[in-house]
Specification:
single chain; mainly alpha; Recoverin, domain 1; two-stranded antiparallel sheet; 4 helices; globular
Amino acid sequence: MLDWLGEDRAEGEANPRLMEVFTAFDTDGGGNLDVAELTAGLQSFDIYLTKAQVIGLMPSADADDDKVVRNAYLFRLALTAAWQSVRV
């Protein structure tokens, strides 16, 4: 499912497709994704997770435990974790 986002890149290196999705999820334009933005964005991909489930994904993508995803590399980790959680 996530193959269309392009190949993995080194941490901190922006993938253009991934940045496009990150920006679309970032509805308030703050440059990061909170739980509500991540939940709504995942729903746009037909990935329906509860708020608690999304919070459960955050440790893989939240570098400082403030419940915010700040960059595209960490966002890809969150997307991958979300996709894996619905495939089980």
